[in-house]
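Researcher: Sequence recovery benchmark, item below. Answer with residues only.
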């Protein structure tokens, strides 16, 4: 029997608009997931939510609809450390997808090489308490040490309030670091206030990559019209724009489709693409954000 969806959970947007923004050739959705379908890929018993299905066929249809060329498919907590749904999608996409996995500290070198051969290029460390139970730092250190020889990176998902406590641990990891959703800033606070300044300093000191993603998750005011356009998350724009301006060569973008854990509104993915115009305002910034940076990180050696 299939597990029912967490009550109150919104399904992903069924009829996304065609973006007004034409994406540059080779644009990468560098943060998205696949959920099941659970009839084929069961959700993990230890999960803290049960999503609707969101399989590879719908993910690739969205990629094509939005004008994207490639995906980086990130393991979501609803599948725990069972990466089979993600691997199935990455393999199905051929060279058009890479993966970021969740692994346990006892993973063998052989298993890691198999993941690498399948297109995995990083692991995810999740510190968001509503998503996972404690993440023992010793176990994560062991994982980071095991993946470093493969040239993989560590993707970090944390609440901004936890950065002070986590920063020394992050700084000591022996891999490149990639932060999800700008470190989840409190956008009710000033962009040049102490909290986001501390985050930007962390990024600068450790050459951290930053995903300029999830304005729909971070917004306090909700989608609003901006420059006559629907659905720009105006209160998040200054944060994304700041990161793009300060670290133009280490920013990434993604849809976060199928958008887990949203209950008050579900973004139209076409309008999420248009939101890019407010944070990467020049064609050069957009080429780096969408093409050059993700290609350098996930398809190194390719000209982009
Ligand atoms: O999709 C995201 O990146 C954000 C969320 C969930 C996960 O990342 C996950 O379950 O792996 C969230 O904030 O609920």
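Model:
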């Amino acid at each position: 029997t299939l597990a029912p969806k967490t009550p109150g959970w919104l399904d992903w947007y069924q009829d996304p608009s065609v973006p007004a923004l034409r994406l540059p050739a080779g644009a990468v959705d560098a943060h998205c997931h696949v959920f099941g379908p659970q009839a084929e890929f069961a959700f993990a018993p230890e999960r803290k939510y049960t999503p609707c299905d969101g399989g590879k066929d719908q993910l690739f249809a969205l990629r094509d609809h939005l004008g994207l060329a490639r995906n980086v498919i990130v393991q979501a907590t609803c599948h725990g450390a069972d990466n089979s749904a993600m691997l199935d999608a990455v393999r199905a996409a051929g060279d058009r997808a890479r993966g970021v996995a969740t692994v346990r500290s006892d993973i063998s070198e052989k298993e890691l090489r198999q993941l690498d051969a399948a297109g995995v290029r990083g692991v995810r460390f999740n510190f968001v308490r509503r998503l996972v139970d404690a993440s023992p730092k010793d176990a994560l250190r062991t994982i980071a040490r095991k993946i470093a020889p493969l040239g993989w990176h560590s993707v970090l998902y944390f609440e901004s309030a936890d950065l002070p406590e986590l920063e020394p641990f992050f700084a000591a990891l022996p891999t490149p670091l990639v932060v999800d959703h700008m470190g989840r800033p409190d956008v009710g606070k000033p962009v040049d206030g102490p909290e986001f300044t501390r985050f930007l300093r962390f990024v600068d000191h450790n050459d951290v990559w930053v995903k300029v993603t999830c304005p729909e998750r971070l917004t306090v005011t909700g989608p609003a019209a901006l420059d006559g356009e629907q659905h720009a998350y105006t209160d998040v724009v200054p944060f994304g724009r700041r990161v793009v301006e300060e670290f133009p060569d280490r920013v990434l973008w993604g849809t976060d489709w199928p958008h887990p854990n949203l209950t008050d509104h579900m973004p139209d993915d076409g309008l999420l693409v248009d939101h890019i115009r407010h944070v990467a305002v020049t064609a050069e910034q957009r080429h780096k954000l969408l093409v050059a940076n993700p290609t350098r990180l996930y398809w190194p050696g390719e000209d982009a």
